[in-house]
Amino acid sequence: MGCARQRAGQALIRTGLLGGSFNPAHSGHRRISLFAAEALGLDEVWWLVSPGNPMKPKAGMASLPVRLRSAQKVARRSIIRPTAIEQQLGTRYTVDTLSKLSRQHPERRFIWLMGADNLAQFHAWKDWRRIARTMPIAVIARPGYDAHAQASRAMSWFRGFVHPRATAGSWTKWRTPALVLLRFRPDRSSATALRRHHPDWSSDFPNMAVRDPVTRRPVI
Q: How many helices (H) and strands (E) does the chain have?
């Protein structure tokens, strides 16, 4: 209630949410975030650095402080704010994270950002329809995944809720479910390729507590 009163009569902070392991963060994450920010008129983009992605193996996963430091390095001097807020929220699944963030931050309007590769298997996410009803979704093209995304079970469900790209800047006025498809020149950077090229990348960052830029709490 305090935040709501404080911002009474003021514009809500338009905030994009991009989730992932960021193992490590790379230029592709940055480029799609800044592209989405321009297309959607965002004030900030939060990178939700996952404590542990239920859909990815734990083997080869760097510690959370290391991945957060990696994200901070890639995001510096931009409107991107990497955060391990899911650790503070105690959430494991995206649906629970987005629900809590929406309740705890009434001063913000959130939109979920994801690549076409995630849309292709979105139907496998826990309570994916509830995610779609929690906040608008912007899907960003990713090389090699667009055809799978268009043919996916989730996209079949979304057909009647897709908004034209030209109206992307008006997303705060949309009723959910709402989805917009964004396309830009592809960036083929990938965390998998970076790990293959530099298997010991995590050694470039100290594996010790780091202060979260959003919550201001230490991440251990």
A: 10, 9
Task: Kindly state the greatest CA–CA separation across the chain.
Answer: 51
For 171-213, give the secondary structure using H, E and C: HHHCCCCCEEEECCCCCCCCHHHHHHHCCCHHHHCCCCCEECC
| pLDDT digit string, tens, across residues 178-215 | 999 998 776 677 787 878 888 899 999 999 999 999 99
pLDDT (tens digit, 9 = 90+) per residue, 64-121? 999 999 999 999 999 999 999 999 999 999 999 999 999 999 999 999 999 999 999 9
Give me Rg for the CA atoms of the chain: 17
Determine the residue type at 200: D
Residue length of the chain: 220
The verdict on pTM exceeding 0.85 is yes
Tokens of 131: 């995610």
Residue carrying structure tokens 């809590």: 100
How are strands ordered across the β-sheet holding 13-20? Answer: 80-83, 44-49, 13-20, 108-115, 137-140, 179-182, 162-163
Name the 3-class secondary structure at 162.
strand
